[in-house]
Amino acid sequence: MSFSGKYQLESQEGFVEFMKAVGLPDDMIEKGKEIKSVSEIEQNGDQFKVTVTTGAKVLTNSFTIGQEAELETLTGEKIKAVVNKEGNKLKVVLNKITSVTELVDGNTLVNTLTLGSLVYKRISKRLA
After folding, report:
1. What is known of its domains (predicted)?
2. Domains along the chain?
């Protein structure tokens, strides 16, 4: 199953607590709560380009499965990491945050970020 497509955030759990823990300022957390971000994924074999647009902020990461790449985090920090694919899941560890992106069915993308005991879950639906 290909990850390629555009997905709009439909719901999220644990956003405020997680963003505070990663050091995002309160004003950005308040703005971010209501914005329905759009994730666009381009997959070509093991090569991926992921663009997440949240309001005026655009975050783009490109990587190849199993190879080290420089990835930008939610806070704008750049970290070298390796993204691995396990079935229909993409998994990467950025500092202390583990990110798992799963294509649940052809139209639902679930991204789970874990930092210690904190979990931030984002559920996005494919746009037509």
Report:
1. Forms a beta-barrel structure that accommodates hydrophobic ligands in its interior.
2. 5-123 (2.40.128.20)
The tens digit of pLDDT for each residue in 52-65 reads: 998 888 999 999 99
CA nearest 94: which of 56, 63, 51?
63
Cα–Cα dist 26/78, whole Å: 22
CB 116 within 8 A of CB 98: no
φ, ψ for residue 17, nearest 5 deg: -60, -40
DSSP readout, 57-105?
EEEEEEEETTSEEEEE-TTS-EEEEE-EEETTEEEEEETTEEEEEEEEE
What length does the chain have? 128
- Please give the structure tokens belonging to residue 57: 């902020």
Rounded to whole angstroms, the Cα distance separating 30 from 42 reads 30
Q: List CB contacts of 49: < 8 A, sequence separation 6 or more.
A: 41, 42, 60, 61, 62
Residues 122/14, Cβ–Cβ less than 8 Å = no
Answer yes or no: are the C-beta atoms of 60 and 53 closer than 8 Å: no
58-90 pLDDT, tens digit each: 999 999 999 999 999 877 889 999 999 999 999
